[in-house]
Write the structure tokens for this entry.
Amino acid sequence: MIDDISASIRKAVPPIHREGRPFIAIFAAIALVLFFIWQPLGWLGVGATIWCALFFRDPNRVTPMRDGLVVSGADGVVCDVKRAVPPPELGLGASPLPRVAVFMNVFDVHVNRAPVAGTVTRVAYTAGKFFNADLDKASEDNERNGLVIQSAYGPLGVVQIAGLVARRIVCFVREGETIGAGERFGLIRFGSRVDHYLPEGVEPLVGVGQRTVAGETVIADLTGAAPARTFRKS
């Protein structure tokens, strides 16, 4: 009976990524100090600690494995779908490519996952500013970390962009490593954005305002088998 209850709790409560453990400990320590100062402040600290734990949650995902599918690298809302010139450090050329941008607010899961399977041919960090990640200029001006993944259908760029509150981008992979679609490759702390640069001729399959789930939501089909989609808000 106890084992069944324990198993149910483990299924209901997502695991916490190891990157978050020091932050959760700091929040908890501050909450304890606040209790000694004034109990209502302590409860505010408890609430902040719970939020911090939720921020670093790292739930398991089920990734569709058909060849050519591109899955979202981030949980969040699609904030932009258009053609844009990739950051120069990616080496993807100076011509505009199809781009899907996903904005993550402070309540979204912030563990990022690989959009496609392949070899990481480039990892490039660029220092920058901290504009609101929902703004278009964030792609060019904000601190970012870019990856190029060489898939069976060509190179695909994915860029982690720091936001107004975010001050730390973490990347778990290095150049030359192979990665599977949906595998964890990084994390951004406290509000940010992920841009996906698709190969020329590939049509995005998501629309602005659509919610995505990292490692699960299909945002494009590199084989061209999926028909183009239109969207409306309701």
User: Anything to note?
Assistant: The first strand starts at residue 69 and ends at 71. Helices lie at 2-12, 21-37, 39-55, 138-141.
